[in-house]
Design goal:
One of its GO terms (cellular component) is cytosol. GO terms for molecular function: cysteine-type deubiquitinase activity. One of its GO terms (biological process) is protein deubiquitination. Helices cover about 15% and strands about 30% of the residues. The relative contact order is 0.19. It is of the alpha+beta class. It has a domain of about 140 residues: Alpha-Beta Complex (Cathepsin B, Chain A). The chain contains 4 helices and 13 strands. The strands form 4 sheets. Strands 5, 8, 9, 10, 11, 12 and 13 form a 7-stranded antiparallel sheet that branches.
C-alpha cells in the first residue's frame, strides 16, 4: 500500500526518540537500530513511478521503451498498529566466515517497555493524546548450547487477568487508563517437566531469545 504523507510528519513518532536511554546491549538500543531512518542512495535508490511517468509521458505504454527513473529516498520502519501481544525475536547468530556462530551476549530488557518511540505519530489504535504505548513482560524463551545443539527453556509469569488486554483483543478498544507498573504475579522457570518458582531478577538476567509482552496502555 502506497500512501502520500507530509514530508515533515512522515517520520514522526508518538514519543521523542532522542529522550531514550540507548545503552548498547539493551532492547531499546536494538529497537532503535531496527527502526532508524535510512537514506537510499546510489545503488539503493528507489524506483519512482511518478518520476518514470513524468519522464516517459502518458502516451508511452510500451514496457520495452520505458526508461525507469530512480530517485534518492528515505526509509524508516515504524509500527502503525500497536499489537495486543508484542513478541520480540532476538537474532542470536552471526556470520563467522562460512559458518554461523551463536551470540551469547546478554541483552538487557525491562519488565515494562514503552513502544511509543517506535510507533508512527498516527498509530491507529492509540488513544488521541497518549504518548505512551506500554507493555508488561509475561514470558521469556531462553536457549542454552550452541548452533548445533542445545536446550530451550522458558520463563512464564502466573498473573491475574489483564482486562485492558481482553478489551483490546475481543472488542478492539484502545486502553484508556494509565498503568505504568508491570502486571503482578509469580514467575516460574520451565525446563521440560521441571517447573520452579524464580525471582524477577533471575528472569531479567536470562539470555533471552524470545520476549513476550502484553499491552497495558
Amino acid at each position: 500500500e502506497v500512501s502520500t504523507e507530509d514530508p515533515e510528519t512522515a517520520f514522526c513518532t508518538l514519543a521523542n526518540r532522542e529522550d531514550l536511554n540507548l545503552e548498547e546491549g539493551s532492547i531499546y538500543h536494538c529497537l532503535y537500530q531496527f527502526t532508524r531512518n535510512e537514506k537510499l542512495t546510489e545503488t539503493n535508490k528507489l524506483l519512482c513511478d511518478v518520476c518514470t511517468q513524468r519522464h516517459n509521458g502518458p502516451k508511452n505504454n510500451i514496457k520495452s521503451e520505458k526508461k525507469y527513473v530512480y530517485t534518492n529516498a528515505k526509509k524508516q520502519m515504524l509500527i502503525s498498529l500497536a499489537p495486543p501481544i508484542l513478541t520480540l525475536h532476538l537474532k542470536r547468530f552471526q556470520q563467522a566466515g562460512f559458518n554461523l556462530r551463536k551470540v551469547n551476549r546478554h541483552i538487557k530488557f525491562p519488565e515494562v517497555i514503552d513502544l511509543a518511540p517506535f510507533c508512527t505519530a498516527k498509530c491507529k489504535n492509540v488513544a488521541e493524546g497518549n504518548t505512551k504505548v506500554l507493555y508488561s513482560l509475561y514470558g521469556v524463551v531462553e536457549h542454552s548450547g550452541t548452533m548445533r545443539s542445545g536446550h530451550y527453556t522458558a520463563y512464564a509469569k502466573m498473573r491475574s487477568m489483564n482486562n485492558h488486554l481482553s478489551d483490546l483483543v475481543l472488542r478492539g478498544q484502545s486502553p484508556q487508563a494509565l498503568e505504568s507498573e508491570p502486571v503482578k504475579g509469580q514467575w516460574f522457570h520451565i525446563s521440560d517437566t521441571r517447573v520452579q518458582a524464580v525471582s524477577t531478577s533471575k528472569v531479567l538476567s536470562s539470555q533471552a531469545y524470545l520476549l513476550f509482552y502484553e499491552r497495558l496502555l
